[in-house]
Amino acid sequence: LEYKPTLTPRPLAGRLTASTFVLEQPRCVFPESQDLSTMIWLVVAEAAATKQFDPSTEPATAPLAFQTFPNNTAYATLGTSLRSYRCPPPAGDITVLRVGSETACAHNLSRPSCNGPLPAPGPYRVKFVAWNSSGLQAQTRWSEPITLLKAEPVYNISTTASGRSAGMIVLTSILSILFAVLLACLVALLVPWCSSVFGSKAEAVSVRRYNTHHVYDQPAARL
User: With 49 labelled, which of 17, 69, 162, 181 sits at a CA distance of 20 to 30 A?
Assistant: First the structure.
């Protein structure tokens, strides 16, 4: 087959990481006339070792085990039936494959087809092969070399915040300390003043209350 696997062009998070990459599924690649028992496998190999790959090697066996890669130059993973790659894909179908997403089986020799994290940046090349009980039925071409992101050594990671220089950080720290001291002095000055203004009680002033008495005229003395 002339088909060549490719990284997905979609802007997906983690499209390419230090141990994984995301491929487009091989939709409409393998003839649908194939036996329904046909399984489609992804073969991952080091870019320099693709010529050493024997396509007649059966997937999910020790020679193509993930656990011994890269000593065995290639491994086969993500085996699925041809029916999983319906053409055209139904609306809403996820049509990408994440390579390197399984960690639980990375050292489990009973799972030679583990889709484990890739051990190095590569580069790698991949191809799809179709297998059934009769053996190899079809295969695609190798992809272009795929190089993963390289993890930055710890000693190379900058310890400055947001790329700021050490001098800027020191200056910012000094200004912050001076501001804190100034604020503390201002509080110390305001506390006595507030106490003198609001703490003293106003002197009590007593006001005598006067009651007005009505004066009645006395009756005239009788003569």
Answer: 17
For residue 69, tell me if it sits in a domain: yes
- The encoded tokens of residue 101 equal 């997403």
Helical ranges in the chain per DSSP H: 166-198
For residue 84, is it within any domain? yes
| DSSP element (H, E) containing 98 | strand 96-99
Name the nearest CA neighbour of 80 among 140, 13, 25: 25
The string of pLDDT tens digits covering residues 88-130 is: 888 888 899 999 999 999 999 999 999 999 999 999 999 999 9
Instruction: Return the structure tokens found at 158.
Output: 């900058």
Tally of helices (H runs) and strands (E runs) in the chain? 1, 6
User: CB within 8 A of 137, min separation 6: which ones?
Assistant: 34, 35, 38, 130, 131
Tell if the pTM clears 0.85, that is, is over it: no
User: Stretch 151-156: mean pLDDT, rounded?
Assistant: 58
Indicate whether 23 belongs to any domain. Answer: yes
Identify the domain containing residue 101 by its residue range: 1-150
Both 33 and 94 in one domain: the answer is: yes
| CA-closest candidate to residue 40, choices 27, 23, 21, 22 | 27
Cα 131 to Cα 38: distance, rounded to the nearest angstrom: 5
The Cα angle at residue 91 between residues 86 and 94, in degrees rounded to 5 = 70
Dihedral of the alpha carbons of 163, 20, 98, 6, in degrees to the nearest 10: 90
